[in-house]
Amino acid sequence: MSKTLVLAEKPSVARDLAKVLGCGQNGNGFISGSKYIVTWALGHLVTLADPEAYGNKYKSWNLEDLPMLPDKMELVVIKQTAKQFAAVKALLRREDVGELVIATDSGREGELVARWIILKAGFKKPIKRLWISSQTDKAIKEGFANLKPAREYDNLFYSAQSRSEADWLIGLNVTRALTCKYNAQLSAGRVQTPTLAMIVAREEEIRKFVPREYWTITAQFNGFSVQWQDRDTNQTRTFSKEQADSIVGNITGKTGEVREVARDLKKELPPLAYDLTELQRDANRKYSYSAKQTLNIMQRLYETYKLVTYPRTDSRYITEDIVPTLNERLKSIAVGQYAKPVQGILRNRLSVTKRFVDNSKVSDHHAIIPTEQYVNLSALNIEERNIYDLIVKRFIAVLSSPFEYEQTIVRLDIGGENFTARGRIVRAWGWKAVYEGFGHLEDGEEEDEDQALPEVVRGQKAKVLAPKAVSGKTKPPSRYTEATLLSAMEHPGKFVENKALKETLESTSGLGTPATRADIIEKLFNTFYIERRGKEIHPTSKGVQLIGLVPEDLKSPELTAKWEQQLSLISKGKVSPGSFVGDMKGYAARLVGAVIANSEQFRHDNVTREKCAECGKFLLEVNGKKGKMLVCPDRECGFRKNVTLISNARCPECHKKMEIRGEGDNKSFYCACGYREKLEAFKKRRGEQVDKKEVAKYMKQQESEENINSALADALAKWKG
């Protein structure tokens, strides 16, 4: 009897599929049943070949050998996962396998994972495609009942492959050119470089910013506060101290009169549902989680617990076919603190509008929402609970009624000057009740505090009390945090002048995709182009210098916009993949020429007097994610060692995180407040509170090396870009 082979992207997903498909027999890299065999990739098993595969001359990095422009891009098996590829290949070649179902992630990159494996293994039998957005048993059953012919997704694959080949051509050529020309570990790429350029440009704005002093004028009228407002410009501040003093002098001792009382009943609609980027922003604002950390937590909630839908989505809407499942999803989350608001929604008939349900605004995957899986909150750790809490509250908020309030604006005349006061009376908390009345995280900014106003009528008069001019200074633009950087990457249109390209960036995912932005930001940290100080992101000297060295084209999001226009047309069958890649070869050659022609210099300003234990070169001191490190500047050496580690241990005096310094038995904990503690004393103090095994486990975690990847995407890590 012929069997169907099912190829999943990860083992955890394969286990879910196997359970639903009745496969219970474990084999070498697969799980089999009477009708199906389920196997898996480990992310990518196959990738584009290293430059070295195209000839011996590319084994050493030389400017004269650039650009590298292979006639045909070769595929190779990734060494680290070669064993699993061999297992999948053996299954694809089994005589009793009659067809294949691609069950990798439903999206451009998931398609690439499967198709490259199929091409490398030489599989020629019929292929179907499973396309689902959540990993629940119900979703899997429905997906297998509606399998599509794989050929319907051919153009999606061509689009994904074209993107990958173009990134290889541009990223590796420019990275080699920069590294060879300046004898330093430098790299560039279509997404990472404009992202870094935004951070560097913001730092330059801050450096050049000159603060200006301004004044606001306030006073008390009939028991509430009023503020001066310019009649012509509506501004509430003046940059003239003379004007401010004059206004205060003019209104002192005067009687004011209410000229207008405007009352307006307003509604604030619920926020949109989460896509990945919006969730990463809120998690960074509220919990200081990095984008990568949030994505990893989401993957567990999606794969391990089955509590949420597919995380790597750029849509904030759901499709009409999901609407009949909303009641069941609400019932599954009606536990603990969520029970009461959910019951309130279920009591009323669900009213879903275009603000939540819109097929036209969903491409590969709909918004992140809870699944129908019952939740056991006690099974989640604190990080998982925090992210799940954000998703559930947003889901409840989206299905709740609007926030309604009465806005009152009072306008007064005091000595011929215009003053205003604002007040708000809440009529119905609506969706804001989910957030306990404290507003939401939609825009990440504090809402204006509207004061409670007494009964005010037009013509009312009262003497003005305590008039004063309060000085302040204009502030420079804020440095990026991960939350605001994600926003800038998602909407980079303001950095582009061409209207058509600006629209393309706004209509696609912007710089990177929801799935890759976290990795891009991590890469900038790991290659020491940026560093984190508190929540703020600062460019390093290396990062600033790099932006001065790379070709101008690579600094702008315009390149991504142009690519996305072409890739979109490829996915629709309207542009040939070959012509796009051909254009990219010519572009790569021009970029290499621009690097070679650049007359700028690069210098390390973080050189120490300590020599590398491997090659003898002087080491560089850098700020890694977990503390200070010493790294070798030689690309081929790669030596590095930790100098200090930022631990999770809190200072017993000021409760800030302490640093670990020293080596072996000489390790000690240091705090910024001056507190110091030897490792032995720390172990003893901790040992009195917790099990000694826990202390040992904790120390092992702290000592683990940082996961440092080189530039470009993870798929390019091994190219030492």
Automatic annotation (TrEMBL):
Residue numbers marked as site, Interaction with DNA: W61, W168, R176, R312
Its EC number(s): 5.6.2.1
GO terms under biological process: DNA recombination; DNA repair; DNA topological change
MF annotations from Gene Ontology: DNA binding; DNA topoisomerase type I (single strand cut, ATP-independent) activity; magnesium ion binding
Designated gene of the protein: topB
Domain Topo IA-type catalytic: 153-592
Membrane spanning residue stretches: none
Record region (Interaction with DNA): 187-192
General function of this protein: Releases the supercoiling and torsional tension of DNA, which is introduced during the DNA replication and transcription, by transiently cleaving and rejoining one strand of the DNA duplex. Introduces a single-strand break via transesterification at a target site in duplex DNA. The scissile phosphodiester is attacked by the catalytic tyrosine of the enzyme, resulting in the formation of a DNA-(5'-phosphotyrosyl)-enzyme intermediate and the expulsion of a 3'-OH DNA strand. The free DNA strand then undergoes passage around the unbroken strand, thus removing DNA supercoils.
InterPro entries in the cross-refs: Topo_IA (IPR000380), Topo_IA_2 (IPR003601), Topo_IA_AS (IPR023406), Topo_IA_cen (IPR013497), Topo_IA_cen_sub1 (IPR013824), Topo_IA_cen_sub2 (IPR013825), Topo_IA_cen_sub3 (IPR013826), Topo_IA_core_domain (IPR023405)
Protein family per UniProt: Belongs to the type IA topoisomerase family.
Alphabetical keyword list: DNA-binding, Isomerase, Magnesium, Metal-binding, Topoisomerase
Lineage top rank: taxon: Bacteria
CDD domains xref list: TOP1Ac, TOPRIM_TopoIA_TopoIII
Catalytic reactions of this protein: ATP-independent breakage of single-stranded DNA, followed by passage and rejoining
HAMAP family with a match to the protein in the record: Topoisom_3_prok (MF_00953)
GO cellular component: cytoplasmic replication fork
Name listed for the protein in its UniProt record: DNA topoisomerase 3
